[in-house]
Design a protein that fits this description.
Elements: H1 2-13, H2 19-24, H3 36-46, H4 56-64, H5 91-103, H6 106-109, H7 128-144
């Protein structure tokens, strides 16, 4: 009997959460870095809308699709285009283009956008157009929202 009363009191004490109320809550810094089962536990504790389940297979598939950094190489100096030739371009624009091409790094400009640093492995993919489009959309969502929207859009979406 006491258990039933405790359940009833708990049910009435809990404030129903709407999606709007849930989205208005800030995500703590530590939670933004959770992965694996710890992330699943956090999600299940902090929202009533669905039950998350950890899938090691899905995590492995995601890791498999992100290219290993050992394949990244800095281009040789002779491979980098340094001369910008334009049709009657004003010199100021040429200097600006040169500076942007020489010094601009999106990873430094938007460090909060982790999708910019993510390189997806397209070597075993017949739909590279979908993979690259999804990556560009993920980057643009983050950049255009000033880092408030951070999602990795799937090429399957």
């Amino acid at each position: 009997m006491w258990i039933f009363i405790a359940l009833v009191v708990t049910a009435f004490a809990a404030e129903p959460t709407t999606i709007e109320q849930f989205l208005a809550k800030p995500i703590p810094e530590y939670a933004q870095h959770l992965t694996g089962q710890a992330l699943v536990d956090y999600v299940n504790e902090h929202q009533p809308f669905f039950k998350a389940v950890y899938s090691p297979e899905a995590e492995e598939l995601t890791k498999f699709r992100i290219m290993d950094s050992k394949f990244l190489v800095k281009p040789k100096k002779e491979e980098v285009l340094t001369d910008i030739v334009g049709d009657e371009e004003p010199p100021e624009k040429l200097i600006l283009l040169y500076l942007l091409n020489t010094f601009f790094d999106a990873r430094e400009r938007w460090p909060q956008c982790t999708s910019i640093r993510t390189i997806r492995d397209q070597s075993k993919c017949g739909s590279c157009w979908a993979v690259s489009s999804a990556g560009a959309m993920s980057d643009q969502l983050c950049v255009q929202s000033n880092g408030t929207i951070k999602v990795l859009i799937s090429d399957l979406d």
